[in-house]
TrEMBL record:
<feature type="binding site">
    <location>
        <position position="331"/>
    </location>
    <ligand>
        <name>UDP-N-acetyl-alpha-D-glucosamine</name>
    </ligand>
</feature>
<feature type="active site" description="Proton donor">
    <location>
        <position position="138"/>
    </location>
</feature>
<dbReference type="InterPro" id="IPR036968">
    <property type="entry name" value="Enolpyruvate_Tfrase_sf"/>
</dbReference>
<dbReference type="InterPro" id="IPR005750">
    <property type="entry name" value="UDP_GlcNAc_COvinyl_MurA"/>
</dbReference>
<comment type="function">
    <text>Cell wall formation. Adds enolpyruvyl to UDP-N-acetylglucosamine.</text>
</comment>
<dbReference type="GO" id="GO:0071555">
    <property type="term" value="P:cell wall organization"/>
</dbReference>
<feature type="domain" description="Enolpyruvate transferase">
    <location>
        <begin position="30"/>
        <end position="427"/>
    </location>
</feature>
<dbReference type="InterPro" id="IPR001986">
    <property type="entry name" value="Enolpyruvate_Tfrase_dom"/>
</dbReference>
<keyword id="KW-0133">Cell shape</keyword>
<dbReference type="GO" id="GO:0008360">
    <property type="term" value="P:regulation of cell shape"/>
</dbReference>
<keyword id="KW-0131">Cell cycle</keyword>
<dbReference type="InterPro" id="IPR013792">
    <property type="entry name" value="RNA3'P_cycl/enolpyr_Trfase_a/b"/>
</dbReference>
<dbReference type="GO" id="GO:0019277">
    <property type="term" value="P:UDP-N-acetylgalactosamine biosynthetic process"/>
</dbReference>
<protein>
    <recommendedName>
        <fullName>UDP-N-acetylglucosamine 1-carboxyvinyltransferase</fullName>
        <ecNumber>2.5.1.7</ecNumber>
    </recommendedName>
</protein>
<keyword id="KW-0573">Peptidoglycan synthesis</keyword>
<feature type="binding site">
    <location>
        <position position="114"/>
    </location>
    <ligand>
        <name>UDP-N-acetyl-alpha-D-glucosamine</name>
    </ligand>
</feature>
<dbReference type="GO" id="GO:0008760">
    <property type="term" value="F:UDP-N-acetylglucosamine 1-carboxyvinyltransferase activity"/>
</dbReference>
Amino acid sequence: MEGRLINPVSGLPDTKNAPEADSSVLRVWGGHSLRGHVKISGAKNSALVLMTGALLCSGDCRIRNVPRLADVERMAQVLSALGVKIHRDGETLDVNAREFTTSKAPYELVTQLRASFFAIGAILARLGVAQMPLPGGCAIGARPVDLHVRGLQAMGAEVQIEHGICNAHVPGNKGRLKGAKIYLDSPSVGATETLMMAATLADGETILDNAAREPEVVDLANFCNSMGAKITGAGTSTITILGVSNLHSTDYEVIPDRIEAGTFLTAAAITHSELLLSPVVPEHLLPIIAKLQEMGVNVVEEAPNCLRVLPAAVLKAADIQTLPHPGFPTDMQAQFMTLLALAEGDSLINETVFENRLRHASELNRLGADIRVKGNIAFVRGVHSLSGAPVLGSDLRASAALVVAGLAASGETTIKGLQFLDRGYDRLDLKLQQLGAKIERVREVEADIAIATATNTVQPA
Ligand code: UD1
């Protein structure tokens, strides 16, 4: 990182002014056990949506425990473009939306970051009008926004999608949305959050049925309530929001990232290591811990916010079906596929949340895994070992899964596609290094030279 420009908001290399930052790769030498304590950062999916929630209030919002992520930087850029003042000091983000007057979000940024679309609810609630580019397709599936749109329409908004932009406005009622009874066809996290924010400042009561129950939805409700909103039932399938006329300043701390914690749990399990993780909310990790226990990995609650994972002699096969919370999280599916690749026996993974989220299987096979994919199902036949190779991450969690694989594979694994990893992990490589992993971030060109040299020195028999 030395000599690079650091972005003041994310704390990451400034990708705009340092084009080489995007082309860095990770080199991992597997087979080393990990030990010690890892500090879990604030939850990406909470921090991003809390930042959009800050649009609902015209006072100062202090958000603590904000992770250093490329996605946070992008979200900050979206908010700045709307006229919001943002200042970061370490893990504390101060957001002031007093002068937020622009209803048009910038196309180039929103199309890169799906969570920024969720701001449409807050923008519409505050200004009565919003112009939000569609978030665009994503590597893991089509990810439409129909549930967001239908919910806003039920609350009185007129919405038209033209030329890739979602134009919404509230006719009459002084531009104020009206409370409504809304049933979500599926418990979409983003739609629940968009509509919850919109309803916070609406006229009357909104009831969201079949709402998402993810911990990040609860965090957003708690954040809004800390500003004076009246939201009850978050964490259940029915959320009731009684609209208020305005919200006040707050000082709020983001919950720990359950997916980052889960990723470290799989890193410990695959290297047969003992690790301490904190802060965590063990309840948020129940489906992940249950699956690890089934595989023979013991996880104990050392303290109310601290977990100890113990090494397992053998990893056992297990079947996984991803589901909305409290089911097994789709955001942990790729990391578990890596773990199951080295388990004893056959496992089956059924990805039911996203339609195209098994692309890491082929990269794991490059490392020696035995995985067959048919539709949304992966058949994983456990192998005894993996061997390092150059691989490419296809999305955020797929990249993390390849890092976990690299920790166990013999020799060197080179992982490209770090622009995905840096979106959602707060300095994963540095944290792993501190735990004893042999991992380094280098410029792609240096890694390519190393790969070419290694290839040239291994002569075919
Ligand atoms: C959020 C998380 C993401 C996680 C996902 C599922 C953020 C920023 N991202 O994404 O990390 O993987 O939840 O836990 O919080 N759908 C529709 N219509 C809609 C909205 C969603 O059909 O209007 C579908 C999606 O295509 C997908 C499923 O519903 O198949 C679940 O998506 P959703 O829960 O909305 O995920 P996100 O909120 O985008």
